[in-house]
Write a structure and sequence with these properties.
The protein is mainly alpha-helical. The chain has a domain of 49 residues: Histone, subunit A (Orthogonal Bundle), CATH 1.10.20. It is built from three helices and no strands. The termini are far apart. The model has no long low-confidence stretch (mean pLDDT 86). One of its GO terms (biological process) is cell division. It is found in: Chromosome, Centromere, Kinetochore; Nucleus. This is Centromere protein W. InterPro entries: CENP-W (IPR028847), CENP-W/WIP1 (IPR052484), Histone-fold (IPR009072). One of its GO terms (molecular function) is DNA binding.
């Protein structure tokens, strides 16, 4: 039996949040801000949830407009809807 010559296209997904990078960004942007120990993880989780919801909403927008590719307009419309829902 011959081995397959195809290479897997899967990328390795990091299981850990980039805590050092997040803390550095927080300190650079808001030096007076004091976060508790797991505060950076909560911010990272919130960002991941937002990106996931944005991807789902923009996918639905592309599907409604009968487009097979998610375009910039779909993402912008989805962002407006998500941000409007989170404010009100």
């Amino acid at each position: 039996m011959a081995f397959s010559t195809t290479v897997s296209q899967r990328k390795h997904i990091k299981r850990k949040a980039p805590r050092g990078f997040l803390k550095h960004v927080f300190k650079r942007q808001k030096p007076h801000l004091r976060l508790e120990t797991s505060g950076d993880l909560l911010v990272h989780l919130n960002c991941l949830l937002f990106v996931r919801r944005l991807a789902e909403e923009s996918r639905m927008n592309a599907f409604e407009s009968k487009c097979g590719v998610i375009k910039k307009e779909h993402v912008q419309a989805a962002a407006k809807v998500i941000l409007k829902k989170s404010r009100g």
